[in-house]
Amino acid sequence: MEFAFKPFIAIYHMVRSFFRIPGKIFGYAYSGILAIFDKQSLRKEKTKEVSAEAQVQAMMPKDIKGFEKLNHTEIPKKDEKLYSFRYKARANNGKTFKGTFEATSLLEAKNFLQNEGYEVLSIVPRKPYDIDISFGGFNAAELSFALTQLSTYLKAGIPLIDSVRILEKQSEKIETRKVYQRVVYELLKGENLSTALSKQADKFPKLLINMVKTAELTGDLPTVLDDMAEYYTSKEENRKQMISAMTYPVVVLLVAFAVVIFILTTIVPKFVEMYQDNDAELPGLTVAVMHASDFVTNNYMWIIFGIIAFIGIFILLYKKVKSFRQGVQIILMHLPIVNKVIIYNEVYNFTKTFSSLLNHGVFITDSMEILSKITDNEIYKDLIAKTILNLNKGASISEAFKGNWAFPVAAYEMIVTGENTGQLGLMMEKVANYYQTLHKNLIKQMQSLIEPIMIAILALIVGTILLSIVVPMFDIYGKIQ
């Protein structure tokens, strides 16, 4: 009986082997595909991602005990995800302060703060609604002061990390301290200074980041920091001069506006009642002032709302709409006196920055790209874009500025001279100094002229209103006699 079934058993094994062959073939093919595309490494990356997600979930418990699992203290990799924590710490001087910090784990953040010399009183993960309110990056005065100090520390032989730590310790603003902490953190990871600054591009200007990168290549960081400090010092001086020149007329205009509103809403209505009771004959000027007084008195809320809405819409359009911003800039750059103030300032900023970039070995094309991101003037942005196109075609820099109404002839000729002599950086520096002097002198002249002009305008407005009130009194006086 068993012998009788042997042929069937043999046939069964043959069929089974036959169907196993395609399975093995597909198995070998699949293994080959895995080897080609390195699926094994991809699986490892997925495993890492799963562990990272598990780590994030472990970071979210309400009590701090859940963070004991996050106990790795190794330096994080560049592509590792950072998590945000809010802490309360005490400095060496005994002052307590609060702040936020990003790290790969709570323990790493705590260890970093302790290594910086702070006593960590508490540290917890930030809630989703816990948002920092940032007020932008460093202004020119802060940059000048910080760069001067950093250069001094480096010249004294203090290591870069310790120099930045000194800046961090003396910072009174929480936001500033956080910025320096972030720089120190990146430096400890092995990053260079330019990379550490570029990771906070919203705090540091692109010009400074590129100049520091160039200095790292040449190995002369303190000199570049000194040059940048001088650059931002001069920029801050120009800004203060502009503010000083505009402060007086703005204050006078506000005072004049307040005085006119007060007269129209308080004084004029009383005289109107008196004139109506005495049937005085009102001249056209008085009638116009009376109508203005009625309009302001009855619609002052709408007037205030309209002014605020107009200013808000204007600012929004100026910031968001390029064509609108360009149109406003063109109009301002064609107004008498104002046009020179704007052009001299833009030419100074352009040539000063350009000379700094060229003198420190930055390529011309890279310099132009940096310059296009520094200026807010759309006319000069178009000039720089045209210059980049000319350079790509093999033309000279000066071709884009030739005959342009927004670029003075003297500055154009200096560019041509610099190109011909091979000393473009030196010529740009001389142009910057020349137009800085012109800009300062023009601001001083404006300050001396604005005062009498504003007083005359204020006297004209108030005098017209008072005259419209006084003239009908003569008619009343004549009827009494």
For this entry, give a set of tags.
3 domains, disordered N terminus, mainly alpha, 3-stranded antiparallel β-sheet, single chain
Largest sheet composition: 3 strands, antiparallel
Query: Which regions have little confidence, pLDDT < 50, spanning 5+ residues?
Result: 1-19, 21-78
CATH topology of the largest domain: Receptor-associated Protein
The helix-and-strand class reads mainly alpha
Give the CATH H-level superfamily of the largest domain: Type II secretion system (T2SS), domain F
Helix content: over 70%
Tell me the radius of gyration: 36 Å
Overall form: extended
CATH class of the largest domain: Mainly Alpha
**What's the arrangement of strands in the largest beta sheet?**
2-1-3
What's the order of the H and E elements? HHEEHEHHHHHHHHHHHHHH
Mean of all residue-level pLDDT scores: 78
Tally the helices: what do you get? Answer: 17
**Ends apart, CA distance between termini:** 155 Å
| Number of domains as seen in the coordinates | 3
Strand segment tally: 3
Q: What's the CATH architecture of the largest domain?
A: Up-down Bundle
Kindly estimate the percentage of residues that lie in beta strands according to DSSP.
under 5%
